[in-house]
Amino acid sequence: MSTVALPVDLVADVVIALTGDGRFALAAELLAGLSTQTARLSAAAGTLALAQGDTTAAAALFEHALELDAACYEARKGLADRAADLGDLDRAAACYEAVDTPAPVTIVIPVFNRLDLTRQCLEALSRTTPGDLYEVIVVDNASTDGTSELLRRERAAGRLKAVLNDENLGFGRACNRAARLARGEYVLFLNNDTVPQAGWLEALVATAADPSVGAVGSRLLYPDGSLQHAGIVFEDGKPEHVHRRRPANFAPALVQQDYPAVTGACIILRRELLEQLGGFNEAYTMYVEDVDLCLCVWDAGFRVVYEPASVLFHLESASVVDLERRDALVRAGWEIMRERWDGRWPAALPGGAPVSGAVVERIEGARGFAVLAFADELITDPSLLAAYATAFGPDDDATLVIYAPDSAPGVVEQALGRALTAAGIDEGGCPDLIAVSAPSAPAAQSQLARAVDVVFTRREVGGPFDRLPRYDADALAGLRGRARLAA
């Protein structure tokens, strides 16, 4: 390489830029024989060493830079980066506080492999979000696909901070570790399988600025443009996304609204409140801890708000390889949530306390064969009930599951009582029945799935028995009695 005389500050800038691009050999060649001449050159050499994972050499170079110039920014920041690499987050936080001018929002991105998604997310951030509005901390859960190398390079270029865990700590623990380095007034947790759209962060900050608001979530879309997240409610004691798979412009999803929870794929909180709450509960391995955090927000007297003006695409579970393990972790998360909150749900929770699945009650005599019918068809044509009762009696291993979406339970029971009378079904020959009704289709579908599960598996089911009316020969008289009273 031919030698060209350059100002030392320019050499330092070029070395750091080359390091950020991963061109380590060229950066080292440029530094040859120069690294100890000035504080900035020594700090640039330390940045190069740290980007290659050599924390020992980096420390010596940063310390030398500070001997030459105690105010050298690159050296002081380099020591903060090195402390983070070594896992000394308290020291790293103190060092960053001494050198940083905090941005309003700290974005924490937990990652495990899927380098392509991380790079895509970071590029989308830089493309759609004003640079003076945020800083980024990426926390890596011991990836094996080159993620840590990318993060070291990006950090060397000054584009982010990095926390490099030696093991996979799961979502909540990793986020909590990274949040210890946050300097912003707000902390935003963001999945690496998201693609932020223009204006997404500004809308979140505007809503989070309301003193009554504790957490805010975004409108998330699947790659096909349909809704993935527009708030979380409880159905049958479990958290469920509302309006899932509806069109992106589905009118109810365009309204800002309080919900029991919003997804942790994109959630913003004031840093002061996050620290007060202690971050994510680390009893969870992965999944449901975001719902738990939102419950804590409500419990602390603040609101959880869905903000539709903040839009991101979400490649939901794109980084998940083991789907069976994921489903097991979700179920485990439900159980932890119930154990933590049963009997003490936040009083202000929208929709009230969910029906707990922790209390189980055996439905005696459940059959192993299910027949599904719609209530309106049986009520309109009682001969269908008569035909069924001819084929299946009370001693047969079958249950007729009668589905009545968008119907009030009392009304359905009265109509079914009249239909059974019209069908000529007496107490002695009444087949086994389960009536499933709810005032909205999603709730009814949840009840339907629960009823069929009981029939097929013959196992215990959560919730009070009277939420799932079941009728047999002994209960037929009461069903007909309701019909007579209604008439």
> Structural class, judged by helices and strands?
alpha/beta
Distance between the termini: 99 Å
Estimate the global geometry from the Cα principal axes: elongated
Low-confidence stretches: 1-5, 356-366, 458-476
Q: What is the CATH topology descriptor of the largest domain?
A: Spore Coat Polysaccharide Biosynthesis Protein SpsA, Chain A
Radius of gyration: 30 Å
Beta-strand segment tally: 18
* Mean pLDDT over the full residue set: 83
Main pleated-sheet profile: 10 strands, mixed
Provide the domain count.
Answer: 3
CATH architectural group of the largest domain? Alpha-Beta Complex
Oligomer: single chain
The CATH homologous superfamily name of the largest domain equals Spore Coat Polysaccharide Biosynthesis Protein SpsA, Chain A
Number of helices: 18
In percent, how helical is the residue content? 40-55%
- CATH class bucket of the largest domain: Alpha Beta
- Report strand %: 15-25%
List keywords for this structure.
487 residues; alpha/beta; Serine Threonine Protein Phosphatase 5, Tetratricopeptide repeat; Spore Coat Polysaccharide Biosynthesis Protein SpsA, Chain A; 3 domains; ten-stranded mixed beta sheet; four-stranded mixed beta sheet; 44% helix; disordered N terminus
Question: Can you characterise this structure?
Answer:
- This protein has 18 helices and 18 strands.
- The protein has 487 residues and is an alpha/beta fold.
- The protein folds into three domains: 8-99, Serine Threonine Protein Phosphatase 5, Tetratricopeptide repeat (Alpha Horseshoe), CATH 1.25.40.10; 105-341, Alpha-Beta Complex (Spore Coat Polysaccharide Biosynthesis Protein SpsA, Chain A), CATH 3.90.550.10; 361-486, no CATH class.
- Strands 1, 2, 3, 4, 5, 6, 7, 10, 11 and 12 form a ten-stranded mixed sheet that branches.
- Mean pLDDT is 83; it is low at 1-5, 356-366 and 458-476.
